[in-house]
Amino acid sequence: MKRSPLVIAFVFIVLAASVRASYYSRKTSYSRDVVLRCNKDNKAVEKVMELASVDVWGVHSDGLDIKMSRNIARIVLQYLPESCFVLVSNVENHVKEAEEYSFSTEQKMKAWRINNGLDVVLQDIDDVSSTDWHTAYHNYESIIEWYKHLAKSHPSLARYTTIGKTAENRDMIAVHITASKNPGRNKMYMQCLIHAREWISGSVCMYQAHMLVQGYGNDREITDLLNDMEFLIVPIVNPDGYHYTWSHSRLWRKNRAVNSNSECRGVDLNRNFDAGWGQGGRTSVNECGETYHGKKAASELEVQHIKKYFKKNVPIVAAIDFHSYGQLILRPYGYAKRSAQDESTFAKMGNEMARQMTAAYISQRSIDLYPACGIASDWFYSNEVISANKGKRPASFTIELRDKGPYGFLLPKDQIMPTVKEVKNAVIYLAKSVRDAPLENKESSDSDDYNIIMN
Length: 455
Known about the structure:
By secondary structure, the protein is α/β, with parallel strands linked by helices. The protein contains 16 helices and 14 strands.
């Protein structure tokens, strides 16, 4: 018997009403969760995505991955047998496998620090090929120590700074890397871990910073770039959320903001920027939703700090926001149907970055994947930034890293080095492109609120 999408949606909503995720447990269990891969073009699947009790892991060329309880999955598979199948049958097993290595590695490094000091742990910091550091994931405290040591070890190239505090009083940090003495030098910006569970993005930022300082004087391309430009790296945009993925819930996405009149915590920082904020697309008004966009644009401390820091360091001629997963290179806009003013240039850049990377990456407009409002890479290219950017328009991209499933956010350690190395090629290409031909601002009728995607 054929069932209408509305009937199917009603069944899902009734079932979901009895399901409440625990946001306060000491250690979140995922033993009752599965991940389904579904046809993203199915209207009934879109209704499933709207439930607060499900978690859309990723949208990519192979489909749509949704984490949900087994109870909801049974209903989905019963009503949509041709549109969905089980991708991960037990999420908890994947989490335990990933955590076992990560936590044991951090315990071992903590013991080294106690016995020998940080310098012993990072003694190979001038060898970017060292496997002691770049083949493991690291917690917030270790990453902060690593960047401090990087700057201390290369004082003529790297500068460590804090750009603000989070609600839980953790530092948001940035590292500046350059050999240029030109006060008006162009800059390239990179950020990672805006979504707490996307650990591989943090590894990417560390490797790029390491690659730059190690390459100066040893690699001609890198040496030339650092003589001409400055690289700005914000390695952990979401410190509180990232810390929470180590202490409580590995698959936590949002920050840890307290939402008034709700037991559910957190705001999706990548839906909180002033770029089509709250105007539809894959955003949520539900505080319990994974894509909850906050009470207003830029309501979150982390977003406020990024905005202030970004505009303080103009001119920025390129910006990349690293995420996982799906192996995609996305260009503006996520919230508007109309192409960006620099669409042809961005398409060329995105296609070449995809070609430079060794895995199967696809370049496309963000909105062609799915509508998303309030995202960072759209704000980097917004009128607010361009008007303050000393006559330049940033080449702005979101890069979704490996894989395409089934690991998703739980990418194994043996995939870290291949991922960070392939990103290096794209970063160098983009830096050279904007150094040689930065996008100069010109009069445009484009505005930040045209062709908004409405629900």
